[in-house]
Specification:
Elements lengths: L17 E2 L16 E3 L2 E3 L2 H15 L4 H11 L6 H41 L2 H20 L4 H6 L2
Antiparallel strand pairs: 1-3, 2-3
Helix pairs in contact: 2-3, 3-4
Length: 156
């Protein structure tokens, strides 16, 4: 299997597979890998595959690149870095919890919109008006919610 230029998902590269990419075209995550080059080819070790999978998972959580680098720096220190790693991951967990709450709010909004258009379709004007008032309250409440740290930092 050849290595793609996009980030590799867990399981996309198996241990011992050869990548045929030019060294100048290494993927953005190559700083986390210990590459053994041989005629512009390299072989992924089990440790490389584990780092790629970890990197893909951390990226999927929305963890910024500088924090991913920090994670790998700390994890190389072993047990002595465990408290710092736990703090780093707890912070990211908080970001994920905030995103999950935001997604729940979006789901609730879509459910209410479905109910609204169902009432409109059924000719239930009073039901549609009540749902519209609920939606208006939901929208005003949503505007007053604190933004997750990751959004505030990104200026969204």
């Amino acid at each position: 299997m050849s290595v793609e230029t996009s980030p590799i998902a867990p399981g996309a590269v198996e241990e011992g597979e050869w990548g045929n990419r030019e060294l100048e075209e290494r993927p953005w995550f190559s700083w986390a890998l210990d590459l053994t080059t041989e005629r512009r080819w390299w072989r992924y070790s089990a440790a490389d595959v584990a780092r790629i999978a970890t990197l893909a998972c951390l990226k999927a959580t929305g963890m910024p690149l500088d924090q991913m680098r920090r994670y790998f720096e700390l994890s190389s220190r072993g047990q002595s870095a465990a408290p710092a790693l736990r703090d780093l991951l707890k912070t990211q967990r908080g970001v994920l919890e905030a995103r999950l709450e935001q997604m729940r709010c979006h789901l609730e909004y879509v459910d209410r919109k479905i109910a609204y258009w169902g009432a409109v379709e059924a000719g239930d004007d009073s039901g549609a008006r009540e749902i519209a008032r609920e939606l208006d309250r939901c929208i005003r409440e949503y505007g007053r919610r604190p933004r997750p740290e990751s959004e505030a930092a990104a200026g969204r």
